[in-house]
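Q: I'm writing up a methods section and want to include an example of the input and output format. Could you take the sequence below and give the corresponding predicted structure tokens, formatted cleanly so I can copy it straight into the document?
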Amino acid sequence: MLRFINNHPEILILIIIAVIFLLQLYMYFQKAKQLNGVPDVKSYLASHPKCKTGHGICCYVCGSKSISLYKIDRLGKRTNLHLCKHCNTKLYQTDAGIL
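A: Here is the clean output for your methods example:
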């Protein structure tokens, strides 16, 4: 097997490219899974109108106003996932635009 790869290094390069492609594809679907079922901010506030406060938005589970931002890049598009810092609930997502 090693003799074959030594005689045909282009095969090794193709294998490496294929592995990198498959890893990127896997990571894309993992990131997409993180956003599955998470509403946008407008839908979140429509579902939880009491979460809109005079100082921003709070968590519908624990009421915390401490919300963290997790940036997710997918195919040249950035999406922000907003999480409650206290109970780690996925609250809503916002579109951050094109990279």
